[in-house]
Design brief:
Rossmann fold; 6-stranded parallel beta sheet; elongated; DNA-binding; 14 helices; 434 Repressor (Amino-terminal Domain); 3 domains; homodimer; alpha/beta
Chain lengths: ~350, ~350
DNA sequence: ACAAAATATGTAATCGATTACAAAAGTATC
DNA sequence: GATACTTTTGTAATCGATTACATATTTTGT
């Protein structure tokens, strides 16, 4: 059975297609009685709007592309949930692509916007290659691209992020407040903005507190479990072991703790460990992880709202360029006095 | 700068739009020289096909909807990765929606197919409400719906799944082979097909091996960490504790182990524990988890391929209705002789 | 009661690509 | 060189909704 079209509805309601269209998308300009007849006809015919037709005519795709570096990273799930929720409410669909695949297939990201597949783009990957970033920022559609969580320093895209600096300071102060004075840090990947900022804030806060910081206490990681394990081996090998470690991500912290426990070190008895992000698993981990909580659902919702605002009313220049969302300290059992 | 259209290309190449269109989508019918001229014109104009226009004319959305019960579940990530990879290769986009949101917003799932937003649907949620399932199966587009991993018993949708029965038997035999004779099981949620089948296979295999099975050794769970914790409390409270536990999911196993270790029981010293799925985290867990591995990437790829075959050549009735993919035993450190 | 304004509806062009059909150009065959 | 056939290209209709503009109808003001 073919689905019915505006024409069919118009025939049944005995009006023109223009009236049906108006009745559905802009009801106030249609008289009460006509509106009712159209509504009945819609019900009778089981009419569903054809998105392809509307998209062509209105030059809108009614969908947004979300770009992830890695679908498997649990950090993104709640963000997607938030984005999806807001988009669905506005009748928009959510397209997903991983930056990896796009690169593999030689496809250009900007094509999604240029060829009417998506009206906007939310990028969750700050590690885009330079040429990709340049291509995006020079594109005519650049104002429809928004970064969330991560961002690219040089480019001037709108973005949503959390208080990375403040979060880091809160973390360090939590450890300091417990009595720790020898505090180490496992960083994110070199070149990553988040890792960089958290590291800078860490160094700055230690300086403010007048705490010593040995060079070897800053261990380079990359947000992953595996990197956490390696860092643990470094820690074990140290002569003067820090009594607390602030990790740039929960996954790092988990890997660190896991490797320690394989070598019979206990957290927080031998060393206090903190993460950053407060992913779902942090609460279930053993020991439950003290972390800096980012409201990922909120990040997703905010990103989607900002982007939709730009898509729907692109003229207004009172548009937010960057939104910074608060973080909070979640104290669990992986930290204690030294 | 507006993007250029077929018309623009045609003008530059000095041919008709029909020729340009053919030159791009069906080059063999166009002469070598013309094809070259068109190619040059495309490059000169920076032409990009307009998907909305093509979709309208061809009655194809060139996209597939993937329905998840829960974006946050790490089990799905690799499946999405597999789906995405195959779709991208064929020029299809991947839309994502969660069954929860769709239900909340009162939207009907089938609308995605009816209103030209998607050409097909991959459903990763076997727990759809009955009315939704009925709506889907009675739809004209029902042949474009495919279930992956989970499925609905009564309905006759094509599906991709893994060897749940065989996997369960392998698991039980692994434990039996280590010398365990008192083996318990933590099930999936009541009513879930996967949980049901794994439970049945578990009971059957124990019977085949002639092993005793006390009623309390089958603990009802729901695939989550939390359920695993509860089951651990049950286990602790038992007089005659089983020496091995086969869990219907890795998350159950992790919750179970976590709760045990909070009560100073050690795995595998006090009890051997197995999971099912082999999610990424299983390898990093402490202890690393013995599990039944499903190749989730492969499940995703297979699902996407099957669905595309149905979309592209819907006539052929030599189409696979169900593909069952093999599983394998991954032995790590959570199991040992009693 | 009539003009002016406001409201409601219809007509038809439009978005940009695809494709049935027609026409033209080229090749082979005798 | 004429005929039949194949290959290549063009013309124009089409997909289904939206919307500028025109027209018809109702309301308002005096």
């Amino acid at each position: 059975m073919k689905t019915s079209t505006l024409q069919d509805v118009a025939r049944v309601a005995n009006v023109s297609t223009a009236t049906v269209s108006r009745s559905l998308s802009n009801p106030v300009v249609v008289s009460e009685s006509t509106r009712r007849r159209v509504a009945d006809a819609v019900k009778a015919t089981g009419y569903r709007i054809n998105h392809a037709a509307r998209n062509l005519r209105t030059q809108r795709a009614h969908s947004v592309l979300v770009l992830l570096p890695d679908l498997a990273n649990p950090f993104f799930s709640a963000i997607l949930e938030g984005i999806s929720r807001v988009l669905a409410r506005q009748g928009y669909s959510m397209l997903i692509a991983s930056t990896q695949h796009v690169h593999d297939s030689g496809e250009r990201l900007i094509d999604y916007l240029d060829d009417a597949r998506a009206d906007g783009m939310i990028v969750l990957d700050g590690a885009l290659e330079t040429d990709v970033v340049e291509m995006l920022s020079s594109a005519s559609q650049a104002e429809r691209i928004l970064f969330a969580c991560e961002w690219v320093e040089d480019a001037n895209f709108p973005s949503v992020r959390c208080e990375n600096r403040t979060g880091t300071r809160i973390a360090v102060n939590h450890l300091y407040g417990l009595g720790h004075t020898k505090i180490a840090h496992i960083t994110g990947p070199t070149g990553n903005v988040l890792g960089q900022i958290r590291k800078e804030a860490f160094v700055a806060e230690l300086a403010d507190l007048g705490l010593e910081l040995k060079a070897e206490w800053i261990m380079t990681g990359d947000f992953t479990l595996a990197a956490g394990c390696l860092a643990a081996q470094e820690w074990i090998a140290m002569n003067d072991r820090p009594t607390a470690v602030f990790c740039a991500s929960d996954q790092l912290a988990m890997g660190f703790i896991a490797e320690l426990s394989r070598h019979d070190f206990k957290v927080p008895d031998h060393v206090s460990v903190m993460g950053f992000d407060d992913i779902d698993l942090a609460e279930q981990f053993i020991p439950p992880l003290t972390s800096i909580r980012q409201d990922r659902m909120m990040i997703g919702e905010t990103a989607a709202k900002m982007l939709l605002a730009r898509i729907v009313t692109p003229s207004e220049e009172n548009l937010e360029r960057a939104t910074v969302l608060p973080v909070s300290l979640v104290i669990r059992e992986s930290t204690s006095p030294p």
